[in-house]
Design a protein that fits this description.
Blueprint: H1 2-10, H2 17-48, H3 52-55, E1 59-61, E2 64-66, H4 68-74, H5 76-87, H6 92-109, H7 113-131, H8 138-178, H9 180-196, H10 201-208, H11 212-232, H12 234-246, H13 254-259, H14 265-281, H15 301-315, H16 324-351
Antiparallel strand pairs: 1-2
Helix pairs in contact: 2-4, 2-5, 2-10, 2-15, 5-6, 5-7, 6-7, 6-8, 7-8, 7-10, 8-9, 8-11, 9-10, 9-11, 9-14, 11-12, 11-14, 11-16, 14-16
Length: 363
């Protein structure tokens, strides 16, 4: 047993919730952002501004035409796997082999590909790390083992994982359609808190394929956390904190939350209010890339995702036009209500003496 522990330490193989549930999951979201999400944004820009270079196919592969954005989106599987490999500190030959692993697991995982990529990439990466530099023909053995393990597990578990992810996602979306008020609260609060915790709300939404009303509630929850923390901590962190939290991430407050969990009350209660307003009053849907559902105001990705969803709905005939009510709902849910509600709730929390000045100061 001691030899196994020593071997795993030497290979930097750490079986832990942090390594797989935080580091790998967070990296997967970045991989999705740099492929699927960027591709979607490029396609939207090309379509809306009528840029020929971005709307004209630049490559045809196996009879399928790809635009610039389409090529970026098509690389989502490899991008996720390489990002996960990087987070797991894979040596070069293992890391480069993850490109094939990501393509295979994402393709076999179907619509639930991101979850399949997460599991398969972790397995392939750890097996690859274990064999790396253990033979004199490392340049042959390491890629063979990494790719072989990756493709084997892609064949074995990716389809089931993909179906399971989509089943769970479909249940959540169905439940939100049936009970928009209660599910609006639940989805908004849970996804919003996941965004602030050191895990990836974006990756969770992507893995579950969370779109529609549920996706809209997720956007509301994430915005409430980011904008909420940005405005209630303005006194301590000024404009730098407003920007870094408001369009960066509310995760910056995690250290302060550990010291005083009550600072989390205002943004969380705000999310419980804006979620059902999004689902019941404005019927705001996220029909863009599912990863956008868990991004909130980070780089305005959540808002861009909602907009691309509108564009997609118009293109497929499910929506006739973007209305003034659509824009009013998006602005209120994303920025105005999170700021106003969080300030009101935070003032009440401070009056109770639960939070004091300096509790949200960023280092």
């Amino acid at each position: 047993m001691d030899k196994i522990k020593a071997f795993m330490k030497r290979k930097d193989i750490e079986i832990s919730l942090k390594r797989y549930g935080i580091d790998a999951l967070g990296a997967m979201a970045q991989g999705l952002f740099c492929s699927l999400l960027i591709g979607t944004i490029i396609n939207t820009l090309g379509t809306q501004f009528k840029i020929p270079f971005l709307t004209t196919p630049v490559a045809t592969i196996s009879g399928t035409e790809y635009t610039v954005g389409g090529l970026a989106s098509a690389m989502s599987g490899p991008a996720m796997a390489v990002a996960i490999g990087y987070a797991l500190k894979c040596p070069p030959l293992v890391l480069f082999s993850m490109i094939t692993v990501g393509f295979a697991s994402n393709a076999l995982g179907g619509a639930g590909g991101p979850l399949a990529v997460l599991f398969v990439a972790i397995l392939a990466a750890e097996f690859g790390k274990a064999i790396s530099k253990e033979t004199k023909v490392d340049i042959l053995v390491t890629p063979l083992v990494t790719i072989g393990v990756g493709i084997f597990f892609s064949w074995l578990i990716a389809p089931a994982l993909g179906k399971a992810a989509m089943w769970i996602g479909n249940i959540i979306m169905w439940a939100t359609d049936q009970q928009p008020f209660l599910m609006g609260i639940l989805v908004s609060v849970v996804v919003g808190m996941a965004l602030t915790l050191p895990i990836s709300s974006a990756a969770i939404c992507a893995a579950l394929g969370l779109t529609g009303l549920a996706g809209g509630a997720a956007v509301a929850g994430c915005c409430a956390q980011m904008v909420g923390f940005a405005v209630i901590s303005f006194k301590e962190n000024k404009w730098g904190g407003l920007v870094s939290q408001g369009i960066g991430t509310s995760m910056l407050q995690m250290g302060n939350i550990v010291k005083n969990p009550r600072i989390w009350i205002a943004p969380t209660v705000a999310s419980a209010i804006t979620g059902p307003i999004a689902t019941c009053l404005f019927k705001m849907q996220m029909n863009g890339a599912p990863v956008s559902s868990g991004m909130g105001t980070c780089g305005l990705v959540g808002q861009i995702g909602v907009y691309t969803g509108w564009v997609n709905d118009i293109a497929n005939g499910t929506k006739s036009a973007i209305t003034a009510m659509d824009w009013i709902g998006l602005i209120l849910i994303s920025f105005v209500l999170p700021a106003v509600l969080s300030l009101i709730i935070h003032a009440f929390v401070k009056k109770l003496g639960w939070v004091k000045d300096g509790d949200m100061k960023l280092a």
